[in-house]
Design brief:
It holds the Pfam family DUF924. It contains 10 helices and no strands. By secondary structure, it is an all-alpha fold. It folds into 2 domains: about 110 residues, no CATH class; about 60 residues, Serine Threonine Protein Phosphatase 5, Tetratricopeptide repeat (Alpha Horseshoe). The longest helix has 18 residues. The radius of gyration is 16 Å and the shape is globular. It starts with 6 loop residues before the first helix and ends in a 6-residue tail after the last helix. About 35% of the residues are buried. The mean pLDDT is about 95.
C-alpha cells in the first residue's frame, strides 16, 4: 500500500522505473501492480477529476493510475476500462491548464494516452493532433491506428467480448480488428 501523502510520486516512480516493453504487454506485472496500487485505485477512483489537478505531476500520476494500471490489474476483464473516463477527464483538464508543457515527451505520451483509448471519434481526432505535436513517430502510428478503428466502427471491436457487446455485422465481416 502507498502512503497517502506521496501517492503521486510512488505511481510515477514505479511506472517510469519499468522498461518500456513492460508497459504494454507484460502480464507478469499484473499481480504486482494490483498488490501495490489496487487499494490506491479503489480509494482515488470516486474522487472528481479536479482532485488530481494540483500539478502536472499529480495529473500524470492520476492518468497512470486510472488508465494504465487498470489494464494490468484487470487484464481480460471489463474493469480494465472502468476508469477510462476519469483518466480522460483529468487529461483534458491538465492539457487545458497547460500542464503537458511541464512534462517530458515520454510523460506527455502517457498523459495523452486516454484520448487514444477513448471510443469517441472527437477524442481520437485530438489524440492524433496531440501525438503529431509530440513528434514521436511510433506513438503517432498507434494514435492513427486507434483513430482509424474508431472512425470505421465507432468503437473497438476487440473489446466486445470483454464488455459483453454483440459484434456488429460490419465488425464480423472485417474479422478481428486489433491495431496493435
Amino acid at each position: 500500500m502507498v502512503a497517502a501523502e506521496d501517492w503521486a510520486d510512488a505511481v510515477r516512480r514505479y511506472w517510469f522505473s519499468l522498461r518500456p516493453e513492460q508497459w504494454w504487454r507484460d502480464s507478469s506485472l499484473d499481480g504486482e501492480i494490483a498488490e501495490r496500487f489496487g487499494g490506491l485505485w479503489k480509494e482515488k477512483r470516486p474522487l472528481p477529476p479536479q482532485a488530481f489537478l494540483g500539478s502536472a505531476q499529480e495529473a500524470l500520476a492520476a492518468v497512470l493510475l486510472f488508465d494504465q494500471f487498470p489494464r494490468h490489474m484487470f487484464r481480460a476483464h471489463a474493469d480494465q476500462f472502468s476508469t477510462d473516463t476519469l483518466a480522460l477527464a483529468v487529461a483534458k483538464e491538465a492539457i487545458e491548464r497547460g500542464y503537458d508543457e511541464a512534462l517530458t515527451p515520454q510523460e506527455r505520451g502517457f498523459l495523452y494516452m486516454p484520448f487514444q483509448h477513448s471510443e469517441e471519434l472527437v477524442d481520437q481526432q485530438r489524440s492524433v493532433l496531440l501525438f503529431t505535436a509530440l513528434g514521436d513517430p511510433e506513438q503517432l502510428r498507434f494514435a492513427r491506428l486507434h483513430h482509424d478503428v474508431i472512425e470505421r466502427f465507432g468503437r473497438f471491436p476487440h473489446r466486445n467480448a470483454i464488455l459483453g457487446r454483440a459484434p456488429r455485422p460490419e465488425e464480423l465481416a472485417a474479422g478481428e480488428v486489433v491495431p496493435w
